[in-house]
Every structure is written in C-alpha cells, then in structure tokens.
C-alpha cells in the first residue's frame, strides 16, 4: 500500500514537473485548441493542475486511510479498500481515455498513464487483501 501511496504522490507531482520542463500539458491543450491565446492555455493548465492536485491529495488520503484500516484489522477494511480502488481506477481511466471537446483526450498520454500507475499497486493490494483470512 505504501507503493501505491508513493505512486500517487509521483503522479500528483508529475504535472508540476511537466510544467517546469517538457510542457506536455500546455502543448496538448495548444494542439487541441489552436485558437487559444497563450494566456488562455496557461489558465487551462492551471485549472488542470488544481484538479489533478485535488485528485492526488484525495488519493493519498485514501491510501493512508486504507493502510491504517488494514493495519488496525478493521472488518470493513477490505470492502472499503475495494470501493476506493474502483473509484480511483475509474477516475484514472476517465483521465486517460475521455475525449474533450477538441476530440483528443483531456490529458496527454504520459500524464494519463502516470495517473493509472497507482491503480496497478491498488489492484495488487486488493488481490492480497482478499486472499488473507478475514479479521475476527
């Protein structure tokens, strides 16, 4: 579960690293909306950063809460962890696959896949949780 938390934190920081270096998100928006002014592209990037940061913070809280519940042996840890996985995976796949009004995906593929990476750890964690005997 700590791996999933780490991947979530990396996925949350990745858009900021992109903004400082490669500008994939800005280029993706500029390509999808060629009529946008540089100020409007910057505003769209800022909006995406806010949404991705909120999503990452909620994901980190979910990982921390699930880790605590599992360590504490809470009876509800498995179903709640599974629900959190389904919500997180659904959100990650939405970011990866959903097309916006320009006809391209809302996020560039590299950032979309970065958002999916924590789901791989989540799938493994859920599989391991359900293989263990139920806590008393």
CA distance, first residue to last residue: 22 Å
Mean pLDDT: 94
Structure annotation, total helices: 5
Question: What level of helicity do the residues show?
Answer: over 70%
Radius of gyration: 17 Å
Helix/sheet category: mainly alpha
Order of helices and strands: HHHHH
Shape: elongated
Strand content range: under 5%
Which ranges are low-confidence, i.e. pLDDT below 50, for 5 or more consecutive residues? none
What is the β-strand count? Answer: 0
The main pleated sheet reads as:
none
Question: Layout of helices and strands, plus pairs?
Answer:
Blueprint: H1 2-20, H2 24-32, H3 38-71, H4 77-97, H5 109-131
Helix pairs in contact: 1-3, 1-5, 2-3, 3-4, 4-5
Task: Give structural notes.
The chain has 136 residues and is mostly helical. The protein has 5 helices and no strands. It has helices at residues 2-20, 24-32, 38-71, 77-97, 109-131. α2 (24-32) packs across α3 (38-71). The chain is elongated, with a radius of gyration of 17 Å.
Could you write a compact summary of the structure shown?
The chain has 136 residues and is an all-alpha fold. The chain has helices spanning 2-20, 24-32, 38-71, 77-97, 109-131.
Structure characteristics:
about 140 residues; mainly alpha; 5 helices
């Amino acid at each position: 579960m700590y791996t999933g938390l780490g991947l979530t934190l990396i996925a949350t920081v990745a858009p900021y690293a992109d903004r400082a270096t490669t500008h994939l998100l800005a280029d993706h928006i500029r390509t999808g909306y060629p009529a946008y002014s540089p100020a409007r592209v910057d505003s769209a990037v800022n909006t995406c950063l806010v949404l991705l940061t909120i999503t990452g913070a909620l994901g980190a809280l979910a990982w921390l809460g699930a880790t605590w519940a599992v360590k504490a042996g809470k009876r509800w840890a498995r179903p709640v962890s599974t629900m959190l996985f389904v919500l997180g995976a659904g959100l990650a796949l939405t970011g990866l696959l959903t097309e916006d009004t320009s006809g391209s995906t809302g996020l560039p593929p590299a950032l979309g896949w970065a958002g999916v990476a924590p789901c791989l750890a989540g799938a493994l964690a859920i599989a391991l949780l359900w293989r263990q005997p139920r806590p008393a």
